[in-house]
Write a structure and sequence with these properties.
The complex is a heterodimer of chains A (292) and B (358).
Chain A (H helix, E strand, L loop, with lengths): L1 H31 L6 H19 L2 H24 L7 H23 L14 E4 L2 E6 H23 L1 H11 L1 H6 L4 H27 L7 H14 L4 H22 L4 H15 L14
Antiparallel strand pairs in A: 1-2
Helix pairs in contact in A: 1-5, 1-8, 1-9, 1-10, 2-3, 2-4, 2-8, 3-8, 5-6, 5-8, 6-8, 9-10, 9-11, 10-11
Chain B lengths: L3 H22 L2 H26 L7 H18 L4 H23 L4 H14 L3 H4 L1 H4 L5 E2 L14 H25 L1 H11 L1 H6 L4 H27 L1 E2 L6 H15 L3 H24 L4 H22 L3 H12 L8 H7 L11 H8 L1
Antiparallel strand pairs in B: 1-2
Classes of the chains: A mainly alpha (292), B mainly alpha (358).
Chain lengths: 292, 358
């Protein structure tokens, strides 16, 4: 029973990181109908920047802030330089461009920082918390991870619902042509979406790296599970991204804990197939037009 | 040369002649690269048919390659059948896996299909860890297959590998070119462009989509079988997500939906990293830098090709030919596949678009 509780709590902690990646994918998907395969690579790169800043300033929080700022810059620059020119071309082109961007970032990280595993500090103690004498299997840092993503998600939700910028983003995602006709600069809105996605990815990178180490490919698995979480939840739904992330995180934690780490990917595949058999566009998909 | 079949066959013979001449002229390492390119051509050609003609994306064709490779390794180790028979079985087993995935995929569109196939590509190799006694776990299985004795003891193994890989690739290309021109190929294009219209025209949409998956899985399985033989080893580390993504990348930058594009794409996948490594090491860069420059250069090439040639390299080649006024009488090698799959690159992603606007 204690074991079950431990797996659940650590699953929630990892699930929130998947949720952050999933949210960033949803942000870009809603704006441009594009899957950003570079999301994990961008997060990896901004985490390297955080390491550099922490090394030079000695302050974790300076590195944390630098990573988030770098995420915003990287998202914006990537969108403006390589994604925007691909608009109006076949849709898979932009997907391949994001794959090219991922490979480029991994290559650059290898050139600048080498391929060895680097440890990344955690903001808070990583020793397990206890209630009485029972170990909970989570640390203060795990609580911080879950809280940070939750706060980011809530801020986004509030921003989307109650600010005019959020309204513009929702309008552009709902119908770009109509939004453009009513005076919204859709291109700018899309760039903002990429900037926010870059920020969320950077957050995920900083939060996950203490438990995975940092190397040029370190975010690949996290990206795949984040993508899976977004698909489970439904790519149009930010709420779905968070729920999908939590669901996947907890399920994989049980699978890894009870069955062994070799089966986690197979279990993720199983969950994905079962969910999509029942709801072909994710749990939180809207009404579907009936197809043939 | 008016018959399309004749044109395709003569193009294939020309390809075979080029491979034979190159494999004799070049050294063993280049022979190995020819074999590697042929492996990619086989897999990418299957994927370009799936994505370019039937409009379904797959980020997991590496999984079918793994199935073909493990089938080959197990059969060569335990049964001692002739290699051609092993190849056929590897293709059939992968095709059977393609049926399962195709049935599951028939309801899914765009990113949801991408997600399932991506996860399939990630998860399937883990079966090797789950069944280490049969599948060899992390170490994998050794594959022993040498050149036939009638070629003489001095015949280089890599040349033989280049020959068989290229032979399989060319046979696959000929079959796919004919399939693309047939009723089946027309049905795929109809389904890709408008599912409702295709269904109203009497096409069984689900069946057409599943068949496309089966064909691409069989191609990937054959490619996996060849890969097992030329690398002499089958291990889960060879079938990572990078492989599956490289296949899609090759199909798109070559020119989605065109078989010549599959060849261009495979050349880029194999040769760009090697060429960049040569350049980097010849400039005396440190090993960390030298080993990562090709990676970065490959990323840049992908981005630039997509921005400069939206229809892929094959689109760029056709554009160049038109520029020099050769378009009216297209040379036979370009026409054989370009005619077979007209304008395929223009609309492959339509289903995603429709998914989005609802």
């Amino acid at each position: 029973m204690v074991e079950f509780l431990q797996f659940t709590l650590s699953g929630i902690s990892f699930g929130m990181i998947y949720a952050a990646i999933a949210l960033s994918l949803v942000l870009i998907w809603r704006g441009t109908r594009l899957l950003n395969f570079a999301q994990g690579g961008m997060a990896m790169f901004t985490t390297y920047i955080a390491i550099e800043v922490i090394y030079h300033t000695g302050s974790y929080w300076a590195g944390f802030a630098a990573a988030l700022a770098a995420g915003v810059v990287l998202g914006t620059v990537a969108q403006l330089i390589v994604i925007r020119p691909a608009q109006g071309k076949p849709e898979l082109n932009a997907v391949i461009i994001t794959i090219g961007l991922l490979i480029l970032l991994e290559g650059l990280a290898g050139i600048f920082y080498g391929g060895q595993f680097r440890s990344f500090p955690a903001a808070f103690s990583v020793t397990g918390l206890h209630v009485g004498s029972t170990a909970l299997g989570v640390s203060r840092f795990d609580v911080f991870v879950a809280a940070a993503v939750l706060v980011a998600a809530l801020l986004l939700a509030v921003g989307f619902r109650y600010t005019s910028a959020g309204l513009r983003m929702r309008a552009a995602a709902f119908n770009a042509t109509v939004a453009r006709l009513s005076g919204i600069r859709v291109a700018r809105v899309i760039t903002v979406g990429w900037a926010l996605a870059g920020l969320l990815g950077a957050l995920a990178g900083v939060l996950v790296s203490p438990s995975t180490f940092l190397y040029p490919n370190s975010m690949d698995t996290i990206f795949v599970f984040g993508f899976t979480a977004a698909v489970i939840g439904g790519l149009d739904s930010p709420l779905g991204a968070v729920i999908g992330g939590l669901l996947l995180g907890v399920a994989l934690s049980y699978a890894g804990g009870y069955l062994g780490s070799q089966v986690t990917a197979l279990v993720a595949l199983g969950i994905l197939v079962v969910v999509l058999m029942i709801r072909p566009a994710g749990i939180f998909s809207g009404a579907q037009v009936r197809r043939v | 040369m008016r018959s399309p079949l004749l044109r395709i066959l003569s193009a294939a013979l020309l390809g075979a002649a080029i491979v034979v001449i190159l494999s004799i002229k070049l050294n063993a390492f280049r022979d190995y690269q020819i074999a590697e390119i042929a492996v990619y051509v086989t897999a990418v050609a299957g994927l370009t048919v799936l994505t370019g003609l039937s409009g379904q994306i797959s980020l997991g064709n590496g999984a079918f390659m793994a199935i073909g490779a493990y089938t080959t390794a197990l059969m060569l180790a335990h049964l001692g059948w002739p290699f051609v028979a092993v190849l056929v079985v590897a293709g059939v087993v992968s095709a059977a896996a393609g049926v399962i995935v195709g049935v599951a995929a028939a309801r899914l569109r765009g990113p949801y299909l991408a997600g399932v196939t991506l996860m399939l590509g990630v998860a399937l190799p883990f079966l090797a860890y789950v069944y280490p006694s049969t599948l060899g776990g992390d170490q994998g299985l050794n594959v022993v297959y040498t050149q036939p004795t009638f070629l003489g003891a001095n015949f280089p193994l890599t040349r033989w590998q280049a020959w068989i890989s290229s032979a399989v690739a060319l046979v696959v290309l000929v079959l796919l070119a004919n399939l693309g021109r047939s009723r089946i190929g027309r049905n795929w294009r109809a389904v890709r462009d408008d599912e409702v219209a295709a269904a109203l025209a009497g096409i069984n949409v689900a069946q057409a989509r599943i068949l496309a998956f089966v064909v691409s899985a069989a191609c990937a399985g054959l490619a996996g079988a060849l890969l097992a033989v030329i690398t002499a080893l089958v291990a889960p580390g060879a079938f990572t997500i990078t492989l599956s993504i490289a296949l899609l990348t090759g199909a798109v930058i070559g020119g989605l939906g065109t078989l010549l594009g599959a060849i261009w794409g495979s050349l880029v996948i194999v040769l760009v990293p090697t060429y960049a490594t040569d350049v980097a090491t010849s400039h005396g860069l440190s090993t960390t830098v030298a080993s990562n420059i090709p990676v970065a250069a490959y990323g840049v090439v992908l981005i630039l090709v997509m921005l400069i040639f939206p229809q892929g390299i094959q689109g760029g080649v056709l554009w160049l030919l038109r520029l020099f006024g050769i378009s009216a009488a297209r040379p036979s090698h370009a026409a054989s596949t370009a005619d077979a799959m007209p304008s395929a690159g223009e609309t492959p992603a339509r289903p995603h678009e429709k998914e989005g606007t609802q």
